[in-house]
Amino acid sequence: MQQTDVLILGAGVAGLTTAIKLAKARPDLQITVLTKTNENESNTAWAQGGIAAVWDKKQDSYQKHIEDTLDAGDGLCNREIVEIVVYEGPERVKEIISWGARFDKKAADQYDLGREGGHSENRILHYKDITGWEIQRTLLEEMDRHPNITFHEHFFAIDLITQHHKGYTITRVTPGIECYGAYVLDKRTGQIDTILAKTTVLATGGAGQVYKSTTNPTIASGDGIAMVYRAKGRVENMEFVQFHPTSLYNAAGENPSFLVSEAVRGFGGILRSREGEEFMQKYDPRGSLAPRDIVARAIDREMKQRGEDCMYLDCTHLDKEAFVNHFPNIYNKCLSIGIDPMKDYIPVTPACHYMCGGVRTDEMGRTSIQRLYACGECTCTGLHGANRLASNSLLEGLVFAHRIVEDILPRIDRLNLQTDIPEWDARGTTDPEEMVLITQSLKELKDVMSYYVGIVRSNVRLKRANDRLYLLYKEIEALYNTTTISPQLCELRNLVTIAYLITRSASMRSESRGLHYTTDYPDKKGYVDSSIL
Q1: pLDDT band at 48 (very low <50, low <70, confident <90, very high)
Q2: Options 26, 292, 388, 493, the catalytic residue
Q3: Is the pTM of this model over 0.85?
Q4: How does DSSP assign 262-327, residue by residue?
């Protein structure tokens, strides 16, 4: 049994920023950060495009960024949260620049600001086409400067510890649920440890692996959201799953799918059919730079109408030197599969990219469970509404990490560790006899979600998905209750929970809005607040 002041689950932009800021403010606090793989593997590290912030106030303004975010969110953003993130964002970006982040510049004192879909101005700070990698590098180096941060790799969080583990019955309406830490699996030893904390912060990222095609790394299994739901915490807006319009189509198949950044379209790339027709003007006057929900649905529709496996991104008219300098990894990836972006159209197809829903939080990152905060992609803060505006996610992580620290600091010394927590009980379980039970269930799960709960939905598809998911849930729970814990089994269990939450939330929303499009309600019917679970 280990003890710490603050336990942070996740090591992307949100988790590491929280740890660093706490460590700077209170060198006397013991801060423990866990990641389930290695320090460089997170959704943050895979981000390509950049981070949106109002930088050039001669051309841009806070109001423009606010309106762009509200427009993309299709009426479901919390305006107060949008204003908080947009107004506070630039200061948070300046902080990571002071920690060593190297965003691309046009001149010594002028950043090279990019533009992406849904943005009315150039406001995207970036580092080549690997902005997330650069931010991850910066934060890891800054973290190493603080000896009161303990960083553990290959630790998998299994469940949050609440009064339930002390023998109390808890329901979703029980008042005063508290989090006392987490049970975690040390993947190297197979031992399950109990880590007790005064305060716990979830920064566990997204859940893209619930679909067959996703730009997310294989670790994106929705662990934090699933743990909160099991702990009877509030989860919201899970039906809004963002499919990135332009992942690289590779007939050989890849997991994860390679992302062709939206910044390529901001740079001048144009979406076309195989025959060269520019089709986006049929769907939105902004053409290839419309918000992601519109572009993804348009590509999906064109593929189905034409009987094609992909649409195409035309970059052949762009300056080669500038393109290669800005997108070196995209250029080299295309070349590796026989496509020269300066001569050939790039084949693209939508892929699951980002969860706009998640753990419900307030303006300070507090969840419905006391002592538990959450930030980053695992949350539903109210910023994204029904569809995230491109490059707002890294910004959200920075802003809410800062706000969580501001809320923790005046409270932490009044909290006591709860030490009367039982150790993990694994009695009655045995090693699984066949891994195929896990791998095949995962394949079935991805098929169900991809075919029935994808970009376009219907009541019939959702009902079928829900029926299939219930059978999978019963099989996986039986396996979980009788076999030894493994990361693969835990991820599968979490993904089934995520799949259920997405499907249930989609079934409850009787309208088409943002990322949720249903053929039964193709026209917007007005706001239906039906997705709080």
Answers
A1: confident
A2: 292
A3: yes
A4: THHHHTT-EEE-TT----GGGT-TTGGGS-HHHHHHHHHHHHHHHT-S-EEEE-TTS-HHHHHHH-
